[in-house]
Amino acid sequence: MLNALTVKVEMDGDVAWVTIDNPPVNATSQSVRQGLVDSVAEVQGARVAILRCRGKTFIAGGDMSEFDAPPVEPHLPDVIRMIEDSPVPFIALMHGNVLGGGFEVAMGCAWRIAAPGTGFGLPEVNVGLIPGAGGTQRLPRLIGMEAAIDIACKGRVVKADEMLKLGGIDRVAKDPEAAVREFITALPARPGSVSRRSVPAFEPELLEESKATLLKNAKGQKSPLENLKALTWALEPFETGQPKERARFVELKAAPESRALRHVFFAERAVAKPEAIKGAVPRELSSIAVVGGGLMGAGISAAALAAGLSVTLIERDSAAAQNAHDRVADLLRAAVQRDKMSNQGMDSALEAFRAVDDYAVASDADLAIEAVFEDLDVKRDVFARLAEVMDSNAILATNTSYIDPQDIFDGIANPERCIGLHFFSPAHIMKLLEIVKMPRTSPEVLATGFALGKRLRKVGVLSGICDGFIGNRMLTAYRREADYLLADGATPSQVDAAMRGFGMSMGPYEVQDLTGLQIAWANRKRNAASRDRNERYVTIADQLCEMGRLGQREGKGWYRYEPGNRKPQRDPDVEALIESCSAEQGITRRTFTDDEITGRLLAVLANEGARIVEEGIAERAADVDMVQIHGYGFPRWRGGPMHYAKEIGWDVSRKVMNLVAEESPGSWILAREKAPV
Ligand code: NAI
């Protein structure tokens, strides 16, 4: 019987040991729920029952693979109620993570004992949900409303020591099993069930203040506020609050936000295992070389040092090497200030770091990442010099944004060791890493790229070769359509506000002002000769650049900026320039609603993403979503542009794209009719 495998009861005198064994994380799947029901019956007659889990963790959540199907009995709220009402009291003996359904089960027990470092949380909010088995009803009763808001609405994981102080657990013990044996020798009086307590008094303004903060930070995501609302039901009797929580959980599970966030959850795991590295074993890396210590090279070095790698940074001359050293040290100091690194961590990182102007110093590195100027000859020269001093098998990686890596590595011996590692700025913070495969890159080298990405806490996404790889190619399409909208009647502030309203962290024009307009300008100039003459070309951005309006740093770009203030202000000069561009091209300007703007820009993203999948540049549509979410500020709770197109219907997205293509003939290549997967 399956249940016999997942939950086992063993009697030791008058003590019942109930052990869950459901690898990898002892999720509350159907067999565990049934096993718990059976065990409540089996332990009757004992003096006390101890609930524990095998493996590396206590129950660390629900089984999300069951979420798309209708719920199957027994339901978790009923199981927990049985544990709570059992005449034989249960003690939860916990280690690892006690999350979601696991925390809910633990709160149904009479006592809770945990190993040091055990993490407690209700991460349902991160997948668009509220807890569905009494989590929002028992938690405020157990630890008070303020701490419950932190955990349920913000998804914060609280460690055992803090949970003990909050009163959520009874004991933290190095050897929890020994502690529980001692605890049961003289069992204290059984405390009242958590569900029958009332929520301790809290400041009257707490709920309103929390609502305002959550609303501000949610950027359109609903689940933080849903959790807050559910917590307030704990002020009612459990008998009315808990059914409300359950009903809302079931509704939210079927709603778009949770579907999108669950898609992202699974996509993040799938993206790390592309077909192209199946069976390949990554190489061990201990020291790397970074060539070029500018904006990107410094960020990459800081990320690698934080991950415990030794880094040799190579610059053009000793002054540039000193500058690069200072830049990296500043980044590490800032990490300490943000509490991302300890002082001791910074000291050992600095010990593992050197910045030099001599390539020979990097001869023993396992891998080199080049981040010098975006210039083919400079990059080719760097790799020729690296190839001379490094082992003939050492991995060579380029961080180029747009140059074809095949041109960069042309002529290098052992081309199977060459790869693109495309980081995003700021490289020590941004999660995305595009791992670029060339036709001859070996699976082992690719797998090493993925392992490095993981070590640097990045989301690695495999990309083939095309202009801009996955992300910047989509960005080019997105910006092109945004410029068409400007020429046809919209304003930068309207486009930005519409996209922010959709949930993007910033609109396309604010982003350009923040990062500077010059790189894209240089790119347009570089591509001018090869541009398709039938393509509609809008010159507004070029004109801004020619006027020296290069973005925030110059105090003006698509917007103007007051000195010392980063808030974009609408600029009548820019709007007049846009209008005159429209007039010159004989365009009668018209109005666009926010929905028309977001509809068009999202259709363009989905179309370009579909083409990228069709061409085999990305392995799957979900990979495209990961690039957009982790590199371009696409709202996680919308699931990415490909998931969003699927959600509204691929045919609906196609219809908008057809309209976009009709409005700007010669500018767009349409993806195939079939939705990409
Ligand atoms: P940067 O201009 O800030 O830094 C380049 C550095 O390379 C300078 O410090 C320069 O002294 C050094 N350098 C130049 N030639 C060298 C040589 N022969 N040997 C050693 N060092 C040399 O440029 P940034 O922004 O860091 O970009 C570097 C690369 O990263 C470019 O290929 C760029 O396309 C790519 N990239 C840039 C992103 C960005 O947002 N800036 C994002 C992703 C990739």
TrEMBL record:
<dbReference type="Pfam" id="PF00725">
    <property type="entry name" value="3HCDH"/>
</dbReference>
<keyword id="KW-0276">Fatty acid metabolism</keyword>
<protein>
    <submittedName>
        <fullName>3-hydroxyacyl-CoA dehydrogenase</fullName>
    </submittedName>
</protein>
<feature type="domain" description="3-hydroxyacyl-CoA dehydrogenase C-terminal">
    <location>
        <begin position="468"/>
        <end position="561"/>
    </location>
</feature>
<dbReference type="InterPro" id="IPR036291">
    <property type="entry name" value="NAD(P)-bd_dom_sf"/>
</dbReference>
<keyword id="KW-0442">Lipid degradation</keyword>
<keyword id="KW-0456">Lyase</keyword>
<dbReference type="InterPro" id="IPR029045">
    <property type="entry name" value="ClpP/crotonase-like_dom_sf"/>
</dbReference>
<keyword id="KW-0560">Oxidoreductase</keyword>
<feature type="domain" description="3-hydroxyacyl-CoA dehydrogenase C-terminal">
    <location>
        <begin position="597"/>
        <end position="665"/>
    </location>
</feature>
<dbReference type="InterPro" id="IPR008927">
    <property type="entry name" value="6-PGluconate_DH-like_C_sf"/>
</dbReference>
<dbReference type="GO" id="GO:0070403">
    <property type="term" value="F:NAD+ binding"/>
</dbReference>
<dbReference type="Pfam" id="PF00378">
    <property type="entry name" value="ECH_1"/>
</dbReference>
<keyword id="KW-0520">NAD</keyword>
<keyword id="KW-0576">Peroxisome</keyword>
<dbReference type="GO" id="GO:0006635">
    <property type="term" value="P:fatty acid beta-oxidation"/>
</dbReference>
<keyword id="KW-0443">Lipid metabolism</keyword>
<feature type="domain" description="3-hydroxyacyl-CoA dehydrogenase NAD binding">
    <location>
        <begin position="288"/>
        <end position="462"/>
    </location>
</feature>
<dbReference type="Pfam" id="PF02737">
    <property type="entry name" value="3HCDH_N"/>
</dbReference>
<dbReference type="GO" id="GO:0003857">
    <property type="term" value="F:(3S)-3-hydroxyacyl-CoA dehydrogenase (NAD+) activity"/>
</dbReference>
<comment type="pathway">
    <text>Lipid metabolism; fatty acid beta-oxidation.</text>
</comment>
<dbReference type="GO" id="GO:0004300">
    <property type="term" value="F:enoyl-CoA hydratase activity"/>
</dbReference>
<dbReference type="InterPro" id="IPR006176">
    <property type="entry name" value="3-OHacyl-CoA_DH_NAD-bd"/>
</dbReference>
<dbReference type="InterPro" id="IPR001753">
    <property type="entry name" value="Enoyl-CoA_hydra/iso"/>
</dbReference>
<dbReference type="GO" id="GO:0016853">
    <property type="term" value="F:isomerase activity"/>
</dbReference>
<dbReference type="InterPro" id="IPR006108">
    <property type="entry name" value="3HC_DH_C"/>
</dbReference>
<keyword id="KW-0511">Multifunctional enzyme</keyword>
<keyword id="KW-0413">Isomerase</keyword>
